[in-house]
Each structure stands twice: as C-alpha cells, then as structure tokens.
Please model this.
Amino acid sequence: MRGILLFMTKYLIRKSIPKKLREELKEHSDFTAQLLGVRGIKTKEEANSFLNPNYENGIHDPFLMEGMERAAKRILKAIKKDEHIVIYSDYDCDGVPGGVVLHDFFKKIEYANFSNYIPHRHEEGYGLNTSAVEGFAKKDAKVLITVDCGIADDEPIARANKLGIDVILTDHHLENDKKPKPYVILNPNQKKDKTYPFKGLCGAGVAWKLVQGLIAKGDFNLVKGWEKWLLDMVGLSTIADMVPLQDENRIIAHYGLQVLRKSRRPGLQQLCQKIKVKQNQITEDDIGFMIAPRINAASRMAHPEEAFKLLSTDDVVEGGKLAEYLDKINNERKGIVAGMARKVHERLKNTDEKEIIVMGNPEWKPALVGLVANNIAEEQKKPVFIWGRDSGDVIKGSCRSDGSLNLVEFMGSIKNVFIDAGGHKFSGGFSVKEERIHDFEQVLVDAFKKYPKDKVEDTDEVDAKLHIDDVNWQTYSVIEKMAPFGVGNAKPLFLFENLLINEIKHFGKEKNHLQLGFINGNKKQVNCIAFFKTAEHFEKDIIEGKKVNLIGSLEKSTFRGFPELRLRIVDIY
Model:
C-alpha cells in the first residue's frame, strides 16, 4: 500500500497501517489487515471479534442498563396480577418491529392481556399523546410500555401518572429540555445511565433488551436462547434506523440477518417474493433499499398498523395481501417524493445560496419531507430543514445535518420558535406554529451563523487502490467478512485507475441506470453499475474506448439467478 495520496480534492487513499499494527495482525493477509486497521482494529483479539461476531461474548448484560431491574419487576408484577399492558411503539421501521418484538414475547409466554398501539402519523403525530393515554385508561390499562419514543413526552406521561398507568419508557433518542417522569426509563442515551457500555442501540434494540431482562427474571419455561428468534426484527430495525453497526449492534445485525434469512413470518416471506428479494440471501442493502421503505410507507401513506400486521401475522393469505398493498403505496410514495425534490431543486436554482437550507410548502406531507431532506443534505452537503402541513395550524418538518451540526442541541438553542423538536444528533423532527413560518427560515439562518459548528472534511477516504483483475471472488471473500455494512462500518471503497471502457449501457424502464463494462486480464468483462445515474451525471466524458478512473465497491448480485461479482460505481473522473 502506498502512503496517503491526494489524487483528487474529493478523495484520499488511506495510509498504510503502521508496521507495529501490521505485525500485530500478521496472521491476516496485507489486504485484510489494511481493511481491519482503517476500521479502528488495534489488536488480534479485536480482529478476531470483528471477523467472527460471537453472540455469547458480544451481547451485553441487560441489567447493566439503568432502570432494567425496576422495569422487569413491574412488568412481571403486571403479568402475575393479569393487568392490561399496552405496547405503544413509534410508526417507523424501528418502532414497528420493536412493537412486534414485545408482541411476540407476550404471545410466546401465553399472556393474553396486552395490546399493541401505533399512533397515526398524520392524525396523532410522533410520540406519546395525551388523547391515546386517556383511551388506555378507559380500557383499564395499568402498564404502558413505549418503544422508540417517549423521552420528550413529559405531558402525556404526567397524564398517565394521574390516571394510574405506570409508564415503562424505552427509547434511544437524545434527551432534550423536557424531563418526563415515568415509572422508569430504559434509554442508554439518558445522561444518568453510566453503566450500560454501548450507547448506539436502536429503539427495537432497547425493547429487545427488556425482553432479555424479563426472560432472565421470569419463570416462563422457554427454551434457552429463544430470544434469538426475535433478532430478525431487531436486526431489521438496527440496519434500517442507521445506528452505528459497531459493538453490540454488529452482533445484532450479523445474527439478525441470519434469522431474517430463515424467518417463518408469512408476511415477510410474501413481501420478499413480491419485491424479488431472495429471503435466504437477504443483505443489509435489501433492507435499506427494498424492505424498510415499504415498512415505512405504511405510516407515510396510510396507517402503520398495516406494517405491524405484515410482520406479526401468522396467516399466509393476509401476509400476501399486505405485502402487495405496501408495495403499491411505496410506489406511490416514490412518485410524490420525486416531485417534491424537483420543486426544491427549482427553488434552490432561483434563490441566493445560504449556509443552511430551510424550505417547505403547506401542501407537502410532513411524513415525506424527511426523505426529501435526506436527499438534499447528501447533495448539497449542508444542514437541511424541510417542512409541510397535514391540517390545523401546526407546521411539521424534518431536518438532516451534514455532520457539522448537532440538530437536537441547535434546535434547543433557539427559543420561542419550536413547539416541539428532537431526534438524533444528525437527524431530527420539529413542529412550529403556522404564524412563525414566515420568519422561520431567517431565524434559523441567523442562529446558524452564530452557532459553533464542527469541521466537516471535504474529502472521502478510499480504502485502497486495486486493479481490475482484483475484482475476483478471493477479494470479495475478504470484504464479505467485514459485513454487515452501514453507519460506523462503511463498505470498503477502492480506486481503479485508467480503465478502458469496453461497453456502455443504460437500463431500467426509464433508462436511468448506468452499466459500464471493462475487460480484465482474463479477457472477461467486469460490469460496473450505478443506479439512478446516467453517463451525463458524471463530470468525466464517458465514451467507449476512452479511459476513466473509477471509485467503487465490490458487490455480489444474484439478479439473473446466478452469482455475479460486479462493482457498484460511486464516482467516475
């Protein structure tokens, strides 16, 4: 490996790992050691743990989490007294599978006095709401377990307390200035949790830790390790919610994919058939690009209950109908989002450039603006706030950071504007009164100018430089051991220099995907794919017989029924 090489202002080849580290990782090839080293691996023990995820060693004791003992005892008391338990989960592809986790647990132990509730995204909004809490009280609920929400819901929780409902709050979002006082909080991100060793769990992950705690404390006569079968839902959420795939999450995602490939859930099986995903070969990309969008489409376009039913049903016919329905509304969702994104681009062309993008339209669905904010933030490399309105006098929106801004802290620093605001460090949601929307952009622009920001690197790092002949199954076998990939464990990127273009194709119904072919030393063509990009997308002229430099990652495709090794194009110059 060569030392760091600036071959374009946008990309850097990572430095070769130090000789001392190479010696520490001597049982591995140079290529493997380099990929391990740039991922922060410092010892042979860490390398072994990373390459061989181990459930027994990698899953933390649930009772290290602040509040777990108290939560488990209260729920076990409710089970013993046959009290009604409500599971209240968020409506996205973290909360919905998290709700399924607890649903499956109670069904497994044959406890019937429970119900699942998922709020309507458009009518009730995000988080716990007082109206729903009052409805639970009328049905004599005594315990309310939140999943992936609640950390900012002080008023509904106060109401639950008055109505005699004990709230077991499970969440993973960051705390803000609201301080709810439930019966107990399970959240590795709460400031008072000093003992749980990992902060990165998703909402379903926290719910699953609660199940672990209940199994450990209860006497349910379950087969040892039964909770592993719930990892299909927890793995789905962990990958879909884009939490860091490190530490415990790497174990959850690794085993979650294994369980997903074997899952007997009829709805999941039917969905995979409908969208042409081979269930026994599900990857993190299948979750991110195919499965999770359809789960999320339920709340964005209709009601999240449909996604919950898909994942929890035991009926093949119902699973098939739900799979078809979610696929249909997801296609509708894609068309609407594309139209919104076009309008944002048009406005950006006709307005003065600012350091932060704030934009909206009363006709846009708040449920869809987060998708637009994602796209714009990635393209423009700036913080983005996009808003819309369902009904009434409240504007709701989503925001995304470029990495320079902690959104929760930034929104918390702006007084008398937000009705509600919260989320993750780089991804959040907000609501404001309609009358404030006229000066909303200027308030955020002014606040952004004064607010301290972290430096964001302008360059992307490439793991190594490879030759086209290195695109082979031996190389891929090394990369595959690094999976699953996601936040905190990005797919290895490689530079391929001076590739002679042998073939150019555009494919798809709208011919909006690009395939390039390059001939290797064995005189066989290596195909390189870029989805939703054409030759005109890249600054370099792409012409057959011309040479290009390419940035890409290796991937296995089974699209035609047999495994094909190809490159996924990230950039061409």
About this structure: The first strand starts at residue 5 and ends at 8. The radius of gyration is 25 Å. Residues 53 and 250 are 7 Å apart (CA to CA). The first helix runs from residue 19 to 24.
